[in-house]
């Protein structure tokens, strides 16, 4: 098989990277910052292009995944990107406005302002799992903030990369928005450029390389990383409702979602009921799996193999594996893996050590819910946490006593789609935020500006200090 990015392609991309970076820097220095009208026009152009090319993008993602549900691409990638664009178009003029700030008493009648300004050339590194939304979400924020943008697409989504590059090239000059393709060598060169800000979405491990490379130029980074997002179900929450919502979040994009529920903790008496309800939910969602258009495949053979090895490891160490395969079909050759529950999972199993990033769901039980909160707090801080409970004071307690990038109460995943909530991890699941105004702020310099008044009250502090020595 031909390598996706043969060496000569890398050389071309490295040359493009260097030339385009130079061009974008020059353009940023020479041209005036875009006005609100220009930014809105750019965002509108992007929205229209996205809507006009929706089917090409859906097809491109499908070929990268082997199979990806068209509805999932529209619902999880295109519509959230359009929502981000609309939010930015609606508010960018007010986000850009200089804001009055207070003046310390001794300095009155001077005045203060905070003036948001573009940073310059922004680099965005994109993973493969939602290649459109994770390229366009940051792009929208960076454009709203008035920057130039270079995007490095994932080597695992070459078709989507090409489709997105063509769409952007048709509407933006490359000194404004440019797309780079390539594997690890190109990615390393990309992250070594002296960007004015870099937003990386990907694994925690690669995030460390990106931050190290950025440190050489003191490039600020926003890291959107992964981790194991737990689900905790309170003792009296209806299991059928929880199971249905959790299994939706675990099977959308076949669990290849950074905020997918990674494992579930529920009262020990409810385990069997959860298994039955999970089976029923999957049977409702996907009566069949193999040829089902709605059920997405695993991105490639390497990840398929990785997930199967988690199941083999868990089984060898004593876990009970329950595939939820309603028609009992063979999935060989489809690239798909059936949604699978893992009971009796223990901490020595890969499935409890690694981010799963696939349709496998370990189900743990507790006798005392406080133990589960301790378990969560004893493990690396997750990107998301899900808590199912209708009891307000217990909900407040869990939200207050746990640390995670974000929380959805009584559902999973959906906090990510809220334009007015900051999205980002904490500790090993990431740093910094974007979405809506949080994205605009991430890609802006908040410049503090002080305007001295005609009446200078500071003359009293000028030397000679003789008389002042009595007071100061
Ligand atoms: P990855 O870290 O392997 O790759 C991400 C990107 O980094 C790719 O474009 C890749 O080419 C590039 N890259 C690879 N090596 C590099 C290096 N040494 N220096 C610079 N860049 C390099 O991640 P992936 O497999 O594409 O995506 C899956 C991971 O992403 C999961 O851990 C998931 O949780 C995480 N993720 C996080 C979010 C979020 O918003 N927090 C969203 C989606 C995915």
Q: Which class best fits the helix and strand makeup?
A: alpha/beta
Low-confidence stretches: none
Strand order of the largest sheet: 10-11-12-9-8-13-14
- Strand content is 15-25%
Rg calculated over all Cα atoms: 25 Å
Q: Could you describe the largest sheet, including whether it forms a barrel? A: 7 strands, mixed
How many beta-strand segments?
16
Mean pLDDT: 96
Total of helices: 15
Helix content: 40-55%
Bound molecules: nicotinamide-adenine-dinucleotide
Q: Cα distance, first to last residue?
A: 78 Å
> What general form does the structure show?
globular
Protein model, in words:
- By secondary structure, the protein is α/β, with parallel strands linked by helices.
- It contains 15 helices and 16 strands.
- The protein has helices spanning 7-30, 36-52, 54-65, 70-96, 133-144, 158-171, 184-191, 204-215, 239-251, 271-285, 301-316, 350-353, 369-377, 392-401, 436-442, and strands spanning 99-101, 111-118, 121-125, 148-152, 177-180, 197-201, 221-224, 229-233, 261-267, 320-323, 340-343, 360-366, 384-388, 406-409, 430-431, 444-451.
- A seven-stranded mixed β-sheet has the order 10-11-12-9-8-13-14, sandwiched between helices.
- Strand 13 (384-388), helix 14 and strand 14 form a beta-alpha-beta unit.
- Helix 4 (70-96) packs across helix 15 and helix 9 (239-251) crosses helix 10.
- The chain is globular, with a radius of gyration of 25 Å.
- The termini are far apart.
- The mean pLDDT is 96.
- The site of nicotinamide-adenine-dinucleotide has 28 residues, from helix 7 and helix 8.
């Amino acid at each position: 098989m031909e390598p996706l990015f043969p060496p000569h392609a890398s050389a071309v991309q490295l040359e493009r990277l260097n030339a385009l970076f130079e061009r974008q820097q020059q353009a940023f220095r020479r041209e005036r910052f875009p006005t609100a009208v220009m930014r809105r026009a750019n965002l509108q152009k992007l929205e229209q292009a996205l809507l006009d090319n929706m089917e090409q993008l859906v097809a491109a993602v499908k070929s990268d995944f082997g199979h990806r549900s068209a509805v999932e691409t529209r619902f999880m990638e295109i519509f959230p990107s359009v929502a981000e664009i609309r939010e930015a178009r609606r508010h960018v003029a007010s986000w850009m406005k200089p804001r009055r700030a207070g003046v310390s008493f001794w300095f009155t009648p001077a005045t203060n302002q905070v003036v948001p300004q573009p940073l310059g050339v922004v680099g965005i590194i994109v993973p493969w799992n939602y290649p459109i939304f994770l390229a366009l979400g940051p792009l929208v924020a960076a454009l709203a903030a008035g920057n130039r943008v270079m995007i490095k697409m994932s080597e695992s989504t070459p078709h989507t990369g090409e489709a997105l590059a063509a769409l952007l090239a048709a509407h933006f000059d490359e000194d404004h928005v440019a797309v780079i393709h390539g594997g690890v060598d190109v990615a390393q060169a990309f992250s070594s450029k002296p960007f004015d800000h870099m937003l990386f979405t990907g694994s925690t491990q690669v995030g460390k390389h990106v931050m190290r490379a950025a440190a050489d130029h003191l490039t600020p980074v926003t890291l959107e990383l992964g981790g194991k997002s737990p689900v905790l179900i309170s003792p009296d929450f209806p299991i059928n409702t929880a199971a249905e919502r959790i299994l939706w979040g675990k099977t959308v994009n076949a669990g290849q979602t950074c905020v997918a529920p990674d494992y579930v903790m529920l009262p020990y008496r409810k385990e069997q009921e959860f298994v039955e309800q999970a089976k029923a939910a999957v049977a409702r969602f996907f009566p069949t799996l193999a040829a089902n258009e709605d059920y997405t495949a695993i991105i490639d053979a390497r990840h398929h193999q990785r997930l199967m090895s988690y199941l083999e490891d868990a089984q060898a160490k004593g876990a009970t594996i329950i595939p939820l395969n309603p028609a009992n079909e063979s999935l060989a050759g489809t690239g798909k893996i059936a949604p699978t529950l893992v009971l009796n999972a223990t901490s020595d199993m890969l499935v409890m050590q690694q981010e799963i990033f696939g349709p496998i769901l370990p189900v743990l039980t507790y006798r005392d819910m406080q133990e589960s909160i301790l378990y969560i707090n004893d493990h690396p801080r997750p990107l998301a946490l899900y808590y199912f409970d209708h009891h307000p004071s217990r909900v407040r307690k869990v939200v207050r006593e746990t640390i995670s990038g974000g929380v959805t109460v009584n559902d999973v995943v959906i906090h990510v789609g809220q334009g007015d909530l900051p999205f980002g991890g904490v500790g090993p699941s990431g740093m910094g935020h974007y979405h809506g105004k949080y994205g605009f702020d991430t890609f802006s310099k908040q410049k503090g500006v002080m305007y001295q008044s005609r009446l200078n009250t500071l003359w009293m502090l000028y030397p000679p200090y003789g008389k002042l020595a009595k007071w100061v």
